[in-house]
Amino acid sequence: MYYLRYMAGAKVPLSERNDMKRYDLIVVGAGPSGLSAAIEASKRGVKTIVFDENARPGGQLFKQIHKFFGSKEHKAKIRGFVIGQQLLDEAGKAGVEVVLNATVIGLYQDKEIVVKTGDTVHHYKGDSIIIATGASENMVTFDGWTLPGVIGAGAAQTLMNLHGIKPGKRVLMLGSGNVGLVVSFQLMQAGCEVAALVDAAPEIGGYGVHAAKVARTGVPFYLSHTIVKAEGTDHVTGVTIAAVDDHFRFIPGTEKHFDVDTICVAVGLSPMSQLLKMAGCRMSDDPKRSGQVPIIDGHGETSIPGLFAAGDVSGIEEASSAMIEGRQAGIYAAEFLGFISKTEMDNGEEKLDAALDGLRQGMFAPKNRGKNIEKTEEGIDISRNLLCRGFIGDDEIERFPGVTHKAGVHPVIECTQNIPCNPCQDACAMHCIMVGKVITALPAVDPSLKCADCGMCVASCSGQAIFLVNEDCGDGTATVTLPYEFLPVPDEGTRGRALGRNGQEVCDAEVVKIRTSPAYDHTTLLTMSVPKEFAMKARFFKANA
Amino acid sequence: MEQELIWDLEQEKQRIMVHPILGRIEKGRRVKFTYDGREVEGYEGEPIAASLKAQGVMIHRYTAKKHSPRGIFCAIGRCTDCVMVVDGEPNIRTCITPLREGMTVQTQYGVSAEPFENQ
Q1: Can you list the positions of beta strands (E) in A394-470?
Q2: Third-level CATH fold of B29-118
Q3: Does one domain contain both A256 and A298?
Q4: Model confidence at A18, in pLDDT bands (50, 70, 90)?
Q5: How confident is the model at residue B7 (pLDDT cuts 50, 70, 90)?
Q6: Distance CA A360, CA A362 (A)
Q7: Quick one: which H or E segment has residue A476?
Q8: What is the CATH number of the domain that holds A154?
Q9: Residue in B closest to A65 by C-alpha
Q10: Does the distance separating the beta carbons of A487 and B20 come in below 8 Å?
Q11: B20 and A189: CB-CB below 8 Å?
C-alpha cells in the first residue's frame, strides 16, 4: 500500500527525488556470496551497501556445523559457521555496510531498488548491482503435508543449530541429496532419532561419504521409496512410505509405517531469481543449475550491463563456490565502475578462477548432473551398495586405493567417489596419504610408510571416511579408531557392540581410547577393540544400554 | 480448543543443552510471556516459535477456510505457516520475531485470536 501511494505521487522521475540514496554498488543478500562480493568491491574503493532480509548476516553458513570439503584455498575442513564468522570479520575490516531486516522488493530500470524495512519502503539507486539472493527450498506434496510436524530441512537446521531446539524426537528424512544426508547426521548430533532416510530416486543424490556416516549409525535407507501419507489429525504422529516404480508410481503392497513426530523434507533448492526476472534480465530454465536462472557471461554479468548475479541465484552449488563467485562479482563490478583497470581485474580473478574450477570437478560437478557415472576417474567400479543403500559392501571396499593392509596401525580411507577434497593429504605428516594435484582423485595410502597414529587424518576428513586400524594386536584383537561427533562420548572401558558399515551389529567391542584435541576441532577419536576378524568390518560403536 | 502439549512443558526437553560441536548453547535472559492465556517462559531474543517449540507447541494457527492446523514449516520467515496473534496483532511470523518479556502470544484462527466457534 505504501508503495502504491508513493508511486501515485511521484511526478518527478524516481532518481531525482531527494530521498533516494545513491551507491556505487548495491548488493542484495548478505550470505556467503553477497558478503564476499561486498568485501572485494569495498577493498577496491567502491562505495557499497548490502541489504538482507534476515536479522543476521551470513546466510545459511551459521547453520552449517560440518567441516567443508575442498582444499586449503576453499577453507576445507573448517566448519561452516566458523567460515561465516571469518567472513563477517573480513567484511567488518573492509568497512562493508550491511543493512539487516531489509527486504529488497523491487528492482527497476536504471538499477533502482525498493527496500522494505518494517512498515516503510525506501528507494536506492546503484551504479551497479550484484544479486546474491541465494536459493529457497523445494517442497513436495503428499497426503498430510501441511500438518504441523512436516518441516523443511532448512527449518530443522535453523531450529537445532541456531536456536538449540530439537526439531522432533523421531524424524523421517525425505531426500538423499547432500542436504538430506547432512541434516540427518546433524539431527542425530542434536539428540534426535532418525527413523529412516527416504528418496524416490533409485540412487542416493549426495556424497557417498555423507550417506555412509549416517548409514553406519544404523539409519535405514529406502531408495525408490517416497511418502504416501503423513499421519495424524492435528500434528504428525507417523508416516507411511511405499516403493515406487520407474515412473514414480506407488507399488501396492510395499507400504511401510514409521512412528515419527517429524517429517523433514529435503528435496532440493531453487534459485531465488525473481528480482532478476523482474528487472528484465534474459533468463533460462536450466536443470543443471536447478531452475530458472539468469543468462550470465563469464563475469557473472546478466543481459543488463552492470547487473551481476553470484552464488546460488545463478545455479545451485555449494557455499564454497558461492563465496568465490561473490568475490569475482565484486571485482567485476569494480572494473565495470572504473575503480580498477581490466588488467587489475584479470590479476585479481585469475587465482579465483582456478579455485572455482577446482571445485567444479569430479562426479558431482554441475556439468555431470544427471549423468550415470559407473566408474571413478581411476577406472574403479563405484560401489553399487553405496549408491542404493548408503554404505559400501564388505566385498566392495578392498578395491579402493585408500584401503591397504600392513602390520601395526595404519589409515583405512573409505573415500570412493571423486569429490574435490584433499585435507587428508596435508593432515598426514608422515606422507602416507596421497591425493595429488588433481584434488578429485581418490586418496591412496602408501603402506610402505609408517603411520604415527596421530589421528589428524581421521579428524581432517570432512566425510568422516578415515579410520585408523590395527588389524592384529597380537592377542586376537584388532583396534579401530573412528571419528565420533555425538554426545555422550563413551568413557574408556565402555562395552558395547560394533556396528558394520551397514549399521548392523557385527561383534562385541570395548572402547580402549578416547582422544580429543583442539587440532581435531570437536571431532572425538574413539578407539575400540574388536576381535581381529572384524577389523575391516567394524566401523561404529554403540554402547550397551 | 486448547491443544495438548506433546512434550513435557516443565522440562523443556526439546532444548539442546550441550551440543557435540556447538558446545553449551548460550541463551538470553529467561523471561515470562503468555501463550493462549497461560504464563510460560522462554529466553529473551530467541524466536517466539523456538520458545513454543521447546514446550511442545505444534499448532500455531488454523486456516480460515478449512480450519486445518499449521505449525513451523520453513523457520526463516518465508512460508508464513507459523503466524500467530502477538500482542493483539495477527499474522506475526513467530519464527523470526524475537521473544520479549510480557508478550501475549495467541493461536490464530483465520486472522483472529477468537476460536472459530466465537467468531
Answers
A1: 409-413, 433-434, 444-445, 466-470
A2: Ubiquitin-like (UB roll) (3.10.20)
A3: no
A4: low
A5: very low
A6: 7
A7: none
A8: 3.50.50.60
A9: B21
A10: yes
A11: yes
